[in-house]
Amino acid sequence: MTPTTRARPTLTQGPILKTLLALAWPIVFGNLLQTGYQLVDAFWVGKLGARAVAAVAVSFPVSFLLIALGSGFSVAGSVLVAQNFGARHLKMVNHVAAQALVLTTGLALLLTVGAHVASPYILHLMGAGPDIFEQANRFQQVLFWGLSFNFGFLMFQALMRGVGEVKIPLYINLATLALNFGLDPLFIYGWGPIPAMGVAGTAAATLITQVLSVIVGLAVLLRGRSGIQLAFKGFRPDWALMRRIFRLGGPSSVDLSARALGLSMLTTLAAGFGTAVLATYGIGSRIIALAIIPALGISLACSTLVAQNVGARNLPRALRTANYALGVSFTTLLVLGGLIWLAARPLVSFFLQGDEEVSQRAVEFVRIASLSLCFTGVQQTVSGAFRGVGNTLSAMVLTITGIWVFQFPVAWYLSHHTALGFRGIWWSFVVANVLISVVAGLWYWKGNWHGRDLADPLGPQVATASPPDGNAS
């Protein structure tokens, strides 16, 4: 246990609201910067016309699905690190971090090869039209090569978040986003020896910045001045611990993948109404995804705080933290939804210029969906509290219910069997958000989701991994 690791405080003391906000705002800003990659790409791609926008839109759910598979294991890494950090099992913190990185890297390599080979078949399945197929395939294949680095940086952020260090990932995101903004036009339009790659150029620029992010993140973990101290010998596989991470992260991967698959199905529904509606959905869904980032950030902060307090065996404080997070998330998204309704037109204009039909439809979509953003905050925060106590299964059930029981069936029915037509897809966001927030709220207030056993999720099956000085679980 290094002095630098020992010096970092836990998040189990002090004013709850102040601690929650101090942890949440860098996470929110960092997620905005991560989404900034897509926003920057969309800004430059929008200048190439509606077909280019549609090519990126049809590829986005597939990329989101693959990233979701890895993100679930980053959730497991964050929760395990946070609970052991709250319990001051600092050597186990380092051990968990190393094994989580090994697991997510291996998974990413397998997905990279499989996704690259399957790219054309995926696009056919998604219903990509011949007018955008080649552009979408080139963009998608380049993007797939960055999966290993994307997974690696997601895990780095999760591990840092588990020990309460949220500013370093923020700084890395800020620097690489600025670089990405400069690289995008370079690869899209070409310059000197660099050929013009069109839509695929945005993926190439993102790949370069992802590589740099992982290199910097690994250097931070190896130096050990941010709460985690890794050594290369620590990457030797500990199969018992990786199985535990897999079991805890599996439901989270299903959770996020179910959401991604739901978005893919909604994209397929939109594609069935033609390229114009697909482009509309692509723009509107990006804006809505951007709008719910505060809820996601508060959810992640809630999860970390709950996990550290569970590790410290302070369940009452963990529950009070979740209550604060619910109030903050609902209020923030309520205000933000109103602002987005007012600013819908300039927001859409940022993503697309010169196509009035698509722009008008996108404004309508954004205004309809913005009405229910506050309810999204409820579901996200409850899921964050569930994950913080290691109850990733309940969080998964909430997501599957929201997407597959509520939203997709409603979207299909309204768009195919009512006069709303494709606008039924827009209204499905409102119906699903309200219904799932009611389910999540009732489940949360019932109060039995945190279970009876507060032992941390590592359990006895990995006790053999504990350091000889007893400074681990």
Automatic annotation (TrEMBL):
| Signal peptide start and end residues | none
Question: Where does the record place it?
Answer: Cell membrane
Report the transmembrane regions from the record.
20-40, 52-81, 101-122, 142-159, 171-191, 197-222, 260-281, 287-310, 322-344, 393-414, 426-445
What membrane topology term does the record carry? Multi-pass membrane protein
Q: Give a Pfam family name.
A: MatE
What the entry lists under InterPro entries is as follows: MATE_fam, MATE_MdtK, MdtK-like
Principal subcellular localisation of the protein: membrane
Kindly give the PANTHER family that the UniProt entry links to this protein: FMN_FAD EXPORTER YEEO-RELATED, MULTIDRUG RESISTANCE PROTEIN NORM-RELATED
Its name, as the record gives it, is Multidrug-efflux transporter
Q: Which organism is it from?
A: Hymenobacter ginsengisoli
